[in-house]
């Protein structure tokens, strides 16, 4: 019998390994962590999609957290929908954590959009008793309620409406925070001056048909209107 030599199987070809370079955002937690996360939350309020579709690296060289603390940081980031591609500056020491990345090079900082100014907090002010002559009450962030009267020579200025359960004999300016929907209401109508938003009327321009009666004052069509509350 003649022996035959089988052809050798071709050696398997190694897979092709191709490099890829991606831009990544680097987060660098700092102590105290509560303040750092508060700053991160402020950035997310300015730009809620800041981390969407981005590779994020966690630089821990300055913090050097213990394994349990590192897990807590990663959990807090996941709750904010921030997924970490890898770690820098610390040995994960655990197969369940993101891998260690080396030789990263810094690039330019990412500029965030400006946070719009916060709206002033709206509050109400209640004056127990009366406002005497010469007193000036200024409350630009809400309504003012006077349980007594406003004497001649006294002044109330409110960002919202003004409610007076006694006589209005002094000056009352409502809507000082550019609020044309503000109103002035009083139990006894005897004012020296009225104002809503940027419009004012003096006693000489009001007539006498409401004098001594409950009244309300408001804006309508860019003019001050007055009517009885009886």
Automatic annotation (TrEMBL):
Signal peptide: none annotated. HAMAP family: MinC. The keyword Transport does not apply. This is Probable septum site-determining protein MinC. Pfam families: MinC_C. Gene3D superfamilies: 2.160.20.70, 3.30.70.260. Belongs to the MinC family. SUPFAM superfamilies: Cell-division inhibitor MinC, C-terminal domain. Cell division inhibitor that blocks the formation of polar Z ring septums. Rapidly oscillates between the poles of the cell to destabilize FtsZ filaments that have formed before they mature into polar Z rings. Prevents FtsZ polymerization. The keyword Cell cycle applies. GO terms for biological process: cell morphogenesis; division septum assembly; regulation of cell septum assembly. It comes from the Bacteria. NCBIfam families: minC. Interacts with MinD and FtsZ. Residues 127-225 form the Septum formation inhibitor MinC C-terminal domain. Keywords: Cell cycle, Cell division, Septation.
């Amino acid at each position: 019998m003649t022996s035959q030599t089988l052809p050798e199987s071709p050696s398997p070809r190694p897979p092709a390994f191709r490099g890829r370079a991606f831009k990544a955002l680097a987060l660098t937690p700092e102590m105290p962590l509560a303040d750092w996360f508060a700053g991160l939350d402020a950035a997310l309020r300015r730009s809620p999609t800041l981390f969407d579709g981005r590779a994020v690296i966690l630089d821990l060289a300055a913090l050097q957290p213990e394994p349990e603390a590192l897990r807590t940081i990663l959990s807090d980031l996941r709750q904010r929908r921030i997924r970490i591609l890898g770690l820098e500056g610390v040995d994960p020491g655990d197969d369940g954590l993101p891998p260690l990345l080396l030789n990263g090079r810094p690039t330019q900082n990412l500029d965030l959009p400006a946070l719009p100014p916060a709206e002033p907090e709206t509050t109400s002010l209640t004056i127990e008793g009366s406002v005497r002559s010469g007193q000036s009450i200024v409350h630009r962030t809400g309504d003012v309620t006077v349980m007594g009267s406003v004497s001649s020579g006294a002044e109330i200025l409110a960002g919202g409406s003004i409610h007076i359960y006694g006589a209005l004999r002094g000056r009352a300016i409502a809507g000082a925070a550019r609020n044309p929907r503000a109103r002035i209401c009083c139990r006894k109508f005897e004012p020296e001056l009225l104002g809503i938003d940027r419009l004012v009327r003096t006693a000489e321009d009001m007539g006498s048909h409401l004098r001594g009666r409950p009244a309300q004052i408001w804006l309508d069509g860019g003019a001050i209107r007055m009517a009885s509350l009886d």
